[in-house]
């Protein structure tokens, strides 16, 4: 998957924050470095729009994260977490991301979908048929192989963990199995 990226290309970046958050947490007990991700996705090209899609909670603990993304020039799209009568919870932005990518595509040369969710395959196919270059950015271990195959280019965030992950030292220590009894907490 070799594509041409040049400084005059107009780029839109659409970030599925839930997908990345859970992938980084489950795979590496870490958080995503969105500053490096955005810089890499742009690759020196002209940013038209960068949008991140997220769910808000009652506690509001995500407010600092949203502010940090806004400082990077990323527009936040948020909605409340849905809690159903049986206790099930839903936090899905797939349709919103797809609609925004399609709606903005006439002003873009390249569309960057930051998610490994296979539900985006029809959107990628549509955008490519409209003449847009479509790039996918995700962790390979949790990305749909069919989505990767449909894209013009794929960036595997797992390939450069130092660049794309932020490790919280305490959280990382808590998650590590104990090798010796010195200096680390035991995990149960």
Any chance you could write out the topology, listing elements then pairs?
Elements: E1 10-16, H1 17-28, E2 31-32, H2 34-42, E3 46-56, H3 63-71, E4 75-80, E5 82-83, E6 89-90, H4 94-104, E7 110-114, H5 121-129, E8 133-138, H6 145-150, E9 153-156, H7 161-164, E10 165-166, H8 169-175
Parallel strand pairs: 1-3, 1-7, 3-4, 7-8, 8-9
Antiparallel strand pairs: 2-10, 5-6
Explain what the structure shows.
The protein is an alpha/beta fold. It has one domain (10-175): 5'-nuclease (Rossmann fold, 3-Layer(aba) Sandwich). It is built from eight helices and ten strands. Strands 4-3-1-7-8-9 form a six-stranded parallel sheet, with helices on both faces. A two-stranded antiparallel sheet has the order 2-10. The protein is globular, with a radius of gyration of 18 Å.
A few lines on this structure:
The chain is α/β, with parallel strands linked by helices. It has helices spanning 17-28, 34-42, 63-71, 94-104, 121-129, 145-150, 161-164, 169-175; strands at 10-16, 31-32, 46-56, 75-80, 82-83, 89-90, 110-114, 133-138, 153-156, 165-166. The chain has a single domain (10-175), classed as 3-Layer(aba) Sandwich (Rossmann fold), CATH 3.40.50.1010.
CATH architecture: 3-Layer(aba) Sandwich
CATH fold group = Rossmann fold
Mind summarizing the main beta sheet? 6 strands, parallel
How many domains in all?
1
Helix percent reads: 25-40%
Q: Biggest sheet, strands in spatial order?
A: 4-3-1-7-8-9
Looking at this structure, what is the CATH superfamily? 5'-nuclease
The tally of beta strands, per DSSP, is 10
What is the overall pLDDT average?
87
Q: Total number of helical segments?
A: 8
Q: pLDDT under 50 segments (min length 5)?
A: 170-188
- Gyration radius, rounded: 18 Å
Highest CATH level, the class: Alpha Beta
Distance between the termini: 43 Å
Structural class by secondary-structure content: alpha/beta
* SSE string: EHEHEHEEEHEHEHEHEH
User: How much strand?
Assistant: 25-35%
- Specify the oligomeric state: single chain
Net shape: globular
């Amino acid at each position: 998957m070799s594509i041409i990226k040049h400084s005059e290309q107009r780029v839109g970046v659409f970030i599925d924050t839930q997908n990345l958050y859970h992938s980084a947490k489950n795979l590496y007990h870490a958080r995503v470095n969105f500053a490096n991700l955005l810089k890499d996705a742009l690759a020196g090209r002209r940013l038209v729009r960068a949008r991140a899609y997220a769910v808000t909670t009652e506690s509001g603990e995500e407010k600092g994260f949203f502010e940090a993304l806004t400082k990077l020039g990323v527009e936040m799209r948020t909605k409340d977490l849905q809690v159903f009568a049986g206790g099930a919870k839903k936090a899905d932005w797939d349709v919103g991301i797809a609609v925004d990518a399609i709606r903005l595509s006439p002003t873009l040369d390249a569309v960057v979908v930051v998610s490994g969710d296979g539900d985006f395959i029809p959107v990628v196919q549509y955008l490519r048929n409209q003449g847009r270059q479509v790039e996918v950015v995700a962790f390979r271990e949790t990305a749909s192989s069919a989505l990767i195959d449909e894209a013009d280019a794929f960036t595997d965030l797992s390939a450069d963990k130092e660049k794309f992950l932020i490790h919280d030292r305490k959280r990382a220590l808590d998650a590590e199995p104990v090798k010796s009894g010195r200096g680390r907490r035991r995990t149960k």
